[in-house]
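Researcher: Hi, I'm a grad student and pretty new to this. My advisor asked me to get structures for two proteins we've been looking at. I'm not sure of the right format, so I'll just paste the first sequence and hope you can take it from there.
Model: That works fine. Here's the first sequence with its structure tokens right after it:
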Amino acid sequence: MPLVPAPDMLAAARAGGYALGYFESWDSYSLEAVLAAAEAENAPVIVGFGATMLADEWLDAGGIEFLGASGRALLEGCRIPASFLLNETHTLEQAVRGVAAGFNFVMIDSHRWPVPEARDAVAKLVAAAHPVGVAVEAEFGSLPDYHDGAVDDSHAYMTDPGAAAEFVAATGVDCLAVAVGNVHLLTAYESEIDLERLQAIQAAVDVPLAIHGGTGFPPASVAAAISLGVAKFNVGTRLKRGFLDAVLDRTRSWSGKESVHDLVGSHKQADFLAAGQSAITETVRSLLRLYGSSGRA
């Protein structure tokens, strides 16, 4: 199935009262795991790669093009509606390269830039992306990060509804990620969501809303968030944590007599990376059901 434009998928989610999951991948195993989950649940999905945690040196030495080509190759046989996101690039230039590399959805990690600088860069990205059918997401408001047992909110600020509406109008973005109490990288407990603020943003902003920090987002607030305009949840940290835990558990079972060729990169049952892959698939399936997108393909 060809890639589906992200605005079409987001519009369908809003009309249908469900949300899409963007489940961040970092290699072929993780992306295949997400696709397997979406196909098993018959769910539309946003797949892709995140640039935030990747080294600029690697991205700028052909990494973006490698991610685009490898992701498109795996998506060729996809049987459910999917959009392909290059998430949170470090620079405008990297996002523009993502457009050329085959992503049909791109985003700059500009939420901590000065607002005028972020607005100008996002508007330039929209001008480069829209003519070739590529959608753009932006983030207005800045999430805190969870590190070493504590939340660092020193640079965080909640999304202001009026300012967000001005940002959307000035840039022409297709989707807006908002800060309403959600927290990046939060694995220890659930975040506290300001649903009144989310309602005010929905009233002011006329594009679908996205929630980053989906790992720590409280499941009990998902339905309310969807009813208030959220059409996309981003999940990354939870997937990597589950992948690593499953891989480490698999290595503890080795006897030392196994073939290294079976254990590493074989895509066979003995492949230790396949254990992580299975963990991702099960997690994504549960989240697709939580977001109401199962059976919507």
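Researcher: Oh nice, that was easy. Here's the second one.
Model: And its structure:
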Amino acid sequence: MERKTQMDRFGAVALTLFALNLAFNQVVIKVTAGGFEPIFGAGVRSLGGMLVLLLWMSWRDVGIALPRAAVLGATISGLLFAFEFMCLFTALDLTTVSRTSIIFYSMPVWLALLAHKLLPGERLSGLRVIGLILAKLGVILALLDRSSGGVSLFGDLLALGAALSWAGIALCVRLTPFSEVSAEQQLIWQLIVSAPLLLLSATIFGGYAREIELIHIAGMLFQIFAVASFGFLIWFALMKIYPASSVASFSFLSPVFAVILGWLILDEKIGVQIWLALGLVASGIFLINRR
């Protein structure tokens, strides 16, 4: 498809569905943890996504070899990717989808702060500063809330660690020659580096399996196909068609959908403070990404 100068109906629908897919994935990760230990589950997902993506790249005749200049960025990105999902999967095992999602999807806040210092043309001003303040207040409210069920301070901190790692990946791609390789190569190298690290870490932290049932296998397959491989390829494709700021502005939908799905599907108890935190974070993310 040709490059667009502004968002159209197809793009808006596609990005809304992608945000819903990511939100539903939070629920799937929590359910899948009933059969797979969190870190092992993250490793299996990376391994499965890597194999699917390798087949896809072979079919599309896309090579995996990187220019020498991009190797360092690929390695750092893969290490951060492994740490991100080690934290996220464990956080979702310890606390609720709603709390984890609000904190995890605060990533644009931390990316905006880092970019303000490190990237030219990314200075914080006007509405972006207001958005930053709103989102940070939302994260603080979520961390302070102790009225909802399934509260874990360690889980909250792990979700924050996952958000910071995600921001680090985005910054790494922007600052290194790793940004010059194709989207498929960026994703495959994050999976190649993270898969063995996560599987090895599982032998140290927590083990492998709990009581695996059909629903846990189905959940793992969903994560591999709908998120870790083709899900992100679709997102990269949308990034090539539409302006980056327009695509990023839809990220505020993911925590909204995640909280609602956690409430509807998992019957999570959500207090007024969490709803308020969600509103602040979602509003902040929208303002930060808006141009």
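Researcher: Is there anything I should tell my advisor about the second?
Model: You could mention this: The two ends are 24 Å apart (CA to CA).
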